[in-house]
Design a protein that fits this description.
Helices cover about 85% and strands about 0% of the residues. It has about 120 residues and is mostly helical.
């Protein structure tokens, strides 16, 4: 990974962690935990060499998927009566959307890499 993208990637991941925690529980404690978790995940991604455009897109999609799953369960249950189901809905839809988005992003990145490699090899 290009060293100039490390700090912005960590910052974006921290922001995504904060936003994800705020969507689920808008309290100061959880948002700080989300911020710290996002910063840690961003640092791990930067250390692993994940591209700066790939990591945040996948994590952001997972957060949105988890939030959608939670809101679907909230719409089906009485307020406060299905907390365990809300958590399960969030976890399953979040994991499913993260895996699905990750797969699509990996395939797109691979196809772009092959395209540019092919273009350089043919001189076009």
């Amino acid at each position: 990974m290009n060293p100039r993208y490390v700090v912005p990637m960590i910052a974006v991941m921290g922001l995504l962690g904060w936003l994800g925690a705020w969507l689920f529980s808008p309290s100061a404690g959880w948002t700080v935990i989300g911020l710290v978790a996002g910063l840690a995940i961003g640092w791990l991604m930067a250390r692993a060499g994940v591209r700066a455009t790939v990591g945040p897109a996948i994590v952001g999609g997972g957060i949105v998927g988890a939030w959608i799953g939670r809101e679907i369960v909230r719409a089906l249950c009485l307020p406060g009566s299905c907390v365990n189901v809300e958590v399960a809905g969030s976890v399953f839809t979040g994991l499913g959307s993260t895996l699905g988005i990750g797969l699509v992003v990996a395939l797109v990145v691979r196809s772009f890499d092959e395209f540019w490699e092919n273009r350089q090899n043919t001189g076009g």
